[in-house]
Design brief:
The protein has 73 residues and is of the alpha+beta class. It is 40% helix and 25% strand. The radius of gyration is 17 Å and the shape is elongated. The relative contact order is 0.21.
Length: 73
């Protein structure tokens, strides 16, 4: 019973895009490991960019800086 947990930032992934991720992850497990689609679980978790950090800063801050082209602190 495979379980796939996909974490993405909450930035407006459409229901169609999420469905494609679920289908794609399921198909990959079927193709590579011969797993049964009916018992393959895929969970998509969306996380606010304020709660996702890279290099000591939130993604919100990093993207704001990139848009303004500000230097790193």
């Amino acid at each position: 019973m495979p379980y796939v947990h996909i974490r993405i930032t909450r930035e407006g992934a459409t229901p169609e895009q999420k469905a494609a991720l679920i289908r794609g992850a399921t198909d990959l497990l079927v193709d590579v490991l011969d797993k049964e689609p009916a018992t393959t679980f895929v969970v998509i978790e969306e996380i606010d960019t304020d709660h996702w950090g890279v290099g000591g800063e939130s993604v919100t801050t990093l993207r704001r800086r990139a848009t303004r082209r500000e230097p790193a602190a």
